[in-house]
Amino acid sequence: MRRRHEAVRPDWVPLPEFVAPMLATAAAELPRPESRFAFEFKWDGVRAVARVEGGRVQLTSRAGNDVTGTYPELQGLGAQLGATQVLLDGEIVALSGGRPSFGALKERMHASAAQARRLVGRVPVTFLVFDVLHLDGSPTVDLPYSRRRELLEGLGLGGAHWLTPRAFPGQGAAVLAASREQGLEGVVAKRLDSRYVAGRRSPLWVKVTGVLTQEVVVGGWRPGAGKRRGLVGALLLGVPEGEGLVFAGSVGTGFGQAELERLTARLGELEVAESPFVSGVPRDRARGARWVRPVLVGEVAHRQWTADGRMRFPTWRGLRPDKSPGEVRRVDG
Known about the structure:
- It catalyses: ATP + (deoxyribonucleotide)n-3'-hydroxyl + 5'-phospho-(deoxyribonucleotide)m = (deoxyribonucleotide)n+m + AMP + diphosphate.
- It holds the Pfam family DNA_ligase_A_M.
- The protein is α+β, with helices and mostly antiparallel strands.
- It folds into 2 domains: 19-209, D-amino Acid Aminotransferase, Chain A, domain 1 (2-Layer Sandwich), CATH 3.30.470; 212-327, CATH 2.40.50.140.
- It contains 8 helices and 23 strands.
- It has helices at residues 4-8, 76-81, 102-109, 113-119, 145-154, 172-181, 257-269, 283-286; strands at residues 23-26, 37-42, 46-53, 56-61, 86-93, 95-96, 99-100, 126-135, 138-139, 158-159, 162-163, 168-169, 186-191, 201-209, 212-223, 232-241, 244-251, 271-272, 290-292, 297-302, 304-305, 311-312, 315-319.
- The chain is globular, with a radius of gyration of 21 Å.
Protein backbone atom coordinates (compact mmCIF):
# COMPACT_ATOMS: atom_id res chain seq x y z
CA MET A 1 0.00 0.00 0.00
CA ARG A 2 1.29 3.45 -0.90
CA ARG A 3 1.10 6.12 1.77
CA ARG A 4 -0.89 9.25 0.93
CA HIS A 5 2.17 11.52 0.78
CA GLU A 6 4.01 9.01 -1.44
CA ALA A 7 1.17 9.13 -3.94
CA VAL A 8 1.12 12.94 -3.92
CA ARG A 9 4.87 13.29 -4.47
CA PRO A 10 6.20 11.47 -7.53
CA ASP A 11 9.79 12.11 -6.40
CA TRP A 12 9.21 10.42 -3.03
CA VAL A 13 12.11 8.12 -2.07
CA PRO A 14 11.27 5.39 0.47
CA LEU A 15 13.01 5.57 3.82
CA PRO A 16 16.09 3.29 3.74
CA GLU A 17 16.54 0.63 6.39
CA PHE A 18 20.06 1.82 7.21
CA VAL A 19 22.86 4.11 6.06
CA ALA A 20 26.35 3.28 7.32
CA PRO A 21 27.69 6.19 9.42
CA MET A 22 30.28 8.61 8.08
CA LEU A 23 33.47 8.52 10.16
CA ALA A 24 35.94 11.22 11.20
CA THR A 25 39.70 11.21 10.65
CA ALA A 26 41.89 11.56 13.76
CA ALA A 27 44.18 14.58 14.00
CA ALA A 28 46.42 16.14 16.62
CA GLU A 29 45.33 19.71 15.88
CA LEU A 30 42.19 21.57 14.88
CA PRO A 31 41.75 22.09 11.12
CA ARG A 32 42.25 25.52 9.60
CA PRO A 33 40.71 27.88 8.80
CA GLU A 34 38.15 27.41 11.57
CA SER A 35 35.63 29.51 9.66
CA ARG A 36 35.07 26.62 7.23
CA PHE A 37 34.05 24.19 9.98
CA ALA A 38 31.38 23.62 12.58
CA PHE A 39 32.68 22.16 15.83
CA GLU A 40 30.78 19.64 17.94
CA PHE A 41 31.72 17.99 21.21
CA LYS A 42 32.89 14.39 20.84
CA TRP A 43 30.69 12.14 22.94
CA ASP A 44 31.94 9.04 24.74
CA GLY A 45 29.33 6.53 23.62
CA VAL A 46 28.33 4.24 20.78
CA ARG A 47 27.22 5.32 17.33
CA ALA A 48 23.68 4.50 16.23
CA VAL A 49 21.39 5.25 13.32
CA ALA A 50 17.70 5.68 14.18
CA ARG A 51 15.05 4.90 11.58
CA VAL A 52 11.77 6.53 12.55
CA GLU A 53 8.58 5.68 10.65
CA GLY A 54 4.97 5.54 11.78
CA GLY A 55 5.95 6.54 15.30
CA ARG A 56 8.27 3.54 15.70
CA VAL A 57 12.03 3.69 16.20
CA GLN A 58 14.50 1.12 14.87
CA LEU A 59 18.09 1.45 16.11
CA THR A 60 21.05 0.05 14.19
CA SER A 61 24.67 0.01 15.33
CA ARG A 62 27.57 1.21 13.25
CA ALA A 63 28.26 -2.42 12.30
CA GLY A 64 24.69 -2.89 11.06
CA ASN A 65 23.32 -4.80 14.07
CA ASP A 66 19.79 -4.19 15.34
CA VAL A 67 20.07 -2.77 18.87
CA THR A 68 16.49 -1.54 19.21
CA GLY A 69 15.72 -3.80 22.17
CA THR A 70 18.87 -2.71 24.01
CA TYR A 71 17.63 0.86 24.47
CA PRO A 72 13.83 0.74 24.99
CA GLU A 73 13.65 4.27 26.45
CA LEU A 74 14.40 5.69 22.99
CA GLN A 75 11.04 4.56 21.58
CA GLY A 76 9.53 7.82 22.80
CA LEU A 77 11.40 9.60 20.03
CA GLY A 78 8.98 8.05 17.55
CA ALA A 79 5.98 9.43 19.40
CA GLN A 80 7.48 12.93 19.35
CA LEU A 81 8.13 12.79 15.60
CA GLY A 82 4.64 11.46 14.82
CA ALA A 83 4.11 11.03 11.06
CA THR A 84 7.62 12.26 10.18
CA GLN A 85 9.76 9.70 8.37
CA VAL A 86 13.42 10.26 9.12
CA LEU A 87 16.82 8.59 9.40
CA LEU A 88 18.96 10.11 12.16
CA ASP A 89 22.64 9.69 13.01
CA GLY A 90 23.87 10.12 16.56
CA GLU A 91 25.60 8.77 19.65
CA ILE A 92 24.04 6.82 22.51
CA VAL A 93 25.57 7.80 25.86
CA ALA A 94 25.04 7.05 29.54
CA LEU A 95 25.44 10.13 31.70
CA SER A 96 27.10 10.08 35.11
CA GLY A 97 27.39 13.37 36.96
CA GLY A 98 26.30 15.18 33.82
CA ARG A 99 29.10 13.69 31.70
CA PRO A 100 29.06 10.69 29.36
CA SER A 101 30.45 7.59 31.08
CA PHE A 102 31.53 4.74 28.84
CA GLY A 103 31.92 2.60 31.95
CA ALA A 104 28.23 3.06 32.76
CA LEU A 105 27.23 2.49 29.14
CA LYS A 106 28.98 -0.89 29.11
CA GLU A 107 26.23 -2.23 31.38
CA ARG A 108 23.66 -1.43 28.71
CA MET A 109 25.62 -2.47 25.62
CA HIS A 110 25.63 -6.15 26.54
CA ALA A 111 22.13 -6.35 28.02
CA SER A 112 19.35 -8.50 26.59
CA ALA A 113 16.01 -6.84 25.90
CA ALA A 114 14.66 -8.09 29.24
CA GLN A 115 17.75 -6.91 31.12
CA ALA A 116 17.62 -3.54 29.35
CA ARG A 117 14.07 -2.92 30.54
CA ARG A 118 15.21 -3.48 34.12
CA LEU A 119 18.27 -1.23 33.69
CA VAL A 120 16.40 1.77 32.26
CA GLY A 121 15.79 3.26 35.69
CA ARG A 122 19.30 2.68 37.04
CA VAL A 123 21.43 3.31 33.92
CA PRO A 124 19.35 5.40 31.50
CA VAL A 125 20.77 6.41 28.13
CA THR A 126 20.46 9.52 26.01
CA PHE A 127 20.52 9.65 22.20
CA LEU A 128 22.52 12.67 21.05
CA VAL A 129 21.38 13.34 17.48
CA PHE A 130 23.81 15.22 15.23
CA ASP A 131 22.80 14.50 11.63
CA VAL A 132 19.80 13.75 9.42
CA LEU A 133 20.28 11.39 6.46
CA HIS A 134 16.77 11.13 5.03
CA LEU A 135 13.68 13.22 5.72
CA ASP A 136 10.10 12.70 4.54
CA GLY A 137 10.85 11.09 1.21
CA SER A 138 14.02 13.06 0.44
CA PRO A 139 17.59 11.76 0.86
CA THR A 140 19.74 14.44 2.49
CA VAL A 141 23.20 12.86 2.30
CA ASP A 142 24.15 14.94 -0.74
CA LEU A 143 23.24 18.20 0.96
CA PRO A 144 26.03 20.19 2.65
CA TYR A 145 26.43 19.81 6.39
CA SER A 146 25.14 23.34 7.00
CA ARG A 147 21.83 22.55 5.29
CA ARG A 148 21.47 19.17 6.99
CA ARG A 149 22.03 20.92 10.30
CA GLU A 150 19.20 23.37 9.53
CA LEU A 151 16.87 20.48 8.76
CA LEU A 152 17.90 18.67 11.94
CA GLU A 153 17.35 21.69 14.16
CA GLY A 154 14.00 22.23 12.45
CA LEU A 155 12.81 18.90 13.87
CA GLY A 156 12.95 20.39 17.37
CA LEU A 157 14.17 17.19 18.99
CA GLY A 158 14.16 17.25 22.76
CA GLY A 159 12.97 14.74 25.33
CA ALA A 160 13.92 12.88 28.47
CA HIS A 161 16.25 10.58 26.51
CA TRP A 162 17.18 12.43 23.31
CA LEU A 163 18.32 15.84 22.15
CA THR A 164 20.32 17.64 19.47
CA PRO A 165 23.55 19.05 20.98
CA ARG A 166 24.70 22.46 19.79
CA ALA A 167 27.19 22.91 16.98
CA PHE A 168 29.59 25.86 17.02
CA PRO A 169 30.61 27.18 13.57
CA GLY A 170 34.07 28.74 13.53
CA GLN A 171 34.70 28.29 17.27
CA GLY A 172 37.10 25.34 17.36
CA ALA A 173 39.58 26.62 19.93
CA ALA A 174 36.81 27.59 22.36
CA VAL A 175 35.02 24.26 21.98
CA LEU A 176 38.23 22.27 22.46
CA ALA A 177 39.09 24.29 25.58
CA ALA A 178 35.58 23.73 26.96
CA SER A 179 35.85 20.02 26.20
CA ARG A 180 39.05 19.70 28.19
CA GLU A 181 37.72 21.83 31.05
CA GLN A 182 34.60 19.66 31.34
CA GLY A 183 36.48 16.38 31.01
CA LEU A 184 34.87 15.43 27.70
CA GLU A 185 36.50 13.28 25.04
CA GLY A 186 37.33 16.00 22.52
CA VAL A 187 35.78 17.70 19.49
CA VAL A 188 34.71 16.79 15.97
CA ALA A 189 35.20 19.41 13.25
CA LYS A 190 32.89 19.12 10.24
CA ARG A 191 33.33 21.08 7.03
CA LEU A 192 30.27 23.27 6.52
CA ASP A 193 30.13 22.23 2.86
CA SER A 194 30.70 18.50 3.50
CA ARG A 195 28.34 15.93 2.04
CA TYR A 196 27.59 12.82 4.08
CA VAL A 197 29.94 10.09 2.82
CA ALA A 198 28.27 6.94 4.12
CA GLY A 199 30.45 4.21 5.61
CA ARG A 200 33.76 5.98 5.01
CA ARG A 201 36.33 7.81 7.09
CA SER A 202 36.64 11.25 5.54
CA PRO A 203 39.12 14.12 5.99
CA LEU A 204 36.11 16.46 5.78
CA TRP A 205 35.35 15.44 9.37
CA VAL A 206 38.23 15.64 11.85
CA LYS A 207 38.30 14.47 15.47
CA VAL A 208 40.71 15.89 18.03
CA THR A 209 40.93 14.21 21.44
CA GLY A 210 42.96 14.63 24.61
CA VAL A 211 43.96 10.96 24.67
CA LEU A 212 44.23 8.41 21.90
CA THR A 213 41.54 5.78 21.65
CA GLN A 214 42.16 2.67 19.62
CA GLU A 215 39.92 -0.17 18.52
CA VAL A 216 41.68 -3.50 18.94
CA VAL A 217 41.10 -7.19 18.28
CA VAL A 218 41.53 -9.61 21.18
CA GLY A 219 43.95 -12.38 20.20
CA GLY A 220 44.64 -13.96 23.57
CA TRP A 221 44.77 -13.53 27.31
CA ARG A 222 46.90 -14.31 30.31
CA PRO A 223 45.33 -15.76 33.47
CA GLY A 224 45.32 -13.56 36.55
CA ALA A 225 46.64 -14.17 40.04
CA GLY A 226 45.54 -13.19 43.53
CA LYS A 227 42.10 -11.58 43.41
CA ARG A 228 41.99 -12.34 39.71
CA ARG A 229 42.79 -16.02 40.10
CA GLY A 230 40.63 -17.91 37.61
CA LEU A 231 39.89 -14.73 35.68
CA VAL A 232 41.52 -12.65 32.96
CA GLY A 233 44.75 -11.03 34.13
CA ALA A 234 45.56 -9.25 30.88
CA LEU A 235 44.32 -9.24 27.30
CA LEU A 236 46.69 -9.60 24.36
CA LEU A 237 45.65 -7.18 21.66
CA GLY A 238 46.29 -6.65 17.99
CA VAL A 239 45.45 -4.49 15.00
CA PRO A 240 44.88 -6.05 11.55
CA GLU A 241 47.55 -5.12 9.03
CA GLY A 242 48.09 -6.68 5.63
CA GLU A 243 47.44 -10.40 5.90
CA GLY A 244 46.99 -10.79 9.62
CA LEU A 245 46.80 -9.56 13.19
CA VAL A 246 49.81 -7.57 14.41
CA PHE A 247 50.50 -7.54 18.15
CA ALA A 248 49.88 -4.07 19.60
CA GLY A 249 50.29 -4.64 23.33
CA SER A 250 48.54 -6.02 26.38
CA VAL A 251 46.15 -4.42 28.83
CA GLY A 252 45.41 -5.35 32.43
CA THR A 253 43.70 -2.24 33.81
CA GLY A 254 40.26 -0.71 33.40
CA PHE A 255 38.18 -3.83 34.06
CA GLY A 256 35.23 -4.17 36.42
CA GLN A 257 34.63 -7.44 38.26
CA ALA A 258 31.47 -8.33 36.35
CA GLU A 259 33.21 -7.56 33.07
CA LEU A 260 36.15 -9.80 33.99
CA GLU A 261 33.77 -12.66 34.66
CA ARG A 262 31.95 -12.15 31.35
CA LEU A 263 35.22 -11.88 29.43
CA THR A 264 36.69 -15.00 31.01
CA ALA A 265 33.62 -17.04 30.07
CA ARG A 266 33.48 -15.65 26.53
CA LEU A 267 37.18 -16.14 25.86
CA GLY A 268 36.94 -19.73 27.07
CA GLU A 269 34.45 -20.40 24.28
CA LEU A 270 36.85 -18.97 21.68
CA GLU A 271 40.05 -20.77 22.70
CA VAL A 272 42.33 -22.13 19.97
CA ALA A 273 45.66 -23.96 20.05
CA GLU A 274 47.82 -21.49 18.13
CA SER A 275 48.47 -17.76 18.31
CA PRO A 276 46.45 -15.67 15.82
CA PHE A 277 49.19 -13.02 15.68
CA VAL A 278 51.33 -12.89 12.54
CA SER A 279 53.95 -10.82 14.35
CA GLY A 280 55.91 -12.15 17.28
CA VAL A 281 54.46 -11.70 20.76
CA PRO A 282 57.18 -10.88 23.33
CA ARG A 283 58.20 -13.93 25.33
CA ASP A 284 57.14 -12.44 28.66
CA ARG A 285 53.65 -11.79 27.25
CA ALA A 286 53.33 -15.13 25.47
CA ARG A 287 54.34 -17.19 28.50
CA GLY A 288 51.25 -18.95 29.82
CA ALA A 289 48.99 -17.20 27.32
CA ARG A 290 45.78 -18.69 26.03
CA TRP A 291 44.97 -17.93 22.42
CA VAL A 292 41.54 -17.19 21.01
CA ARG A 293 39.87 -16.76 17.66
CA PRO A 294 40.29 -13.06 16.76
CA VAL A 295 36.62 -12.12 16.60
CA LEU A 296 36.14 -9.81 19.60
CA VAL A 297 36.68 -6.08 19.14
CA GLY A 298 37.45 -3.85 22.10
CA GLU A 299 38.57 -0.30 22.73
CA VAL A 300 41.47 1.04 24.78
CA ALA A 301 42.74 4.49 25.68
CA HIS A 302 46.50 5.04 25.55
CA ARG A 303 49.14 7.77 25.56
CA GLN A 304 51.00 7.12 22.31
CA TRP A 305 52.44 4.53 19.95
CA THR A 306 55.97 3.36 20.63
CA ALA A 307 58.57 2.98 17.88
CA ASP A 308 57.97 -0.79 17.78
CA GLY A 309 54.22 -0.41 17.29
CA ARG A 310 52.96 -0.92 20.84
CA MET A 311 50.44 1.17 22.74
CA ARG A 312 51.93 2.99 25.72
CA PHE A 313 50.00 2.86 29.03
CA PRO A 314 46.82 1.32 27.60
CA THR A 315 43.62 1.20 29.67
CA TRP A 316 40.69 -1.02 28.77
CA ARG A 317 37.45 0.76 27.89
CA GLY A 318 35.29 -2.18 26.95
CA LEU A 319 34.17 -4.55 24.23
CA ARG A 320 32.67 -2.98 21.13
CA PRO A 321 29.97 -5.39 19.91
CA ASP A 322 28.91 -2.68 17.45
CA LYS A 323 32.16 -3.15 15.52
CA SER A 324 33.75 -6.00 13.57
CA PRO A 325 37.44 -6.99 13.30
CA GLY A 326 37.49 -5.97 9.65
CA GLU A 327 36.76 -2.36 10.62
CA VAL A 328 39.73 -2.03 12.98
CA ARG A 329 42.58 0.19 11.81
CA ARG A 330 45.47 1.75 13.64
CA VAL A 331 44.71 5.37 14.57
CA ASP A 332 47.62 7.78 14.77
CA GLY A 333 47.13 11.25 16.16
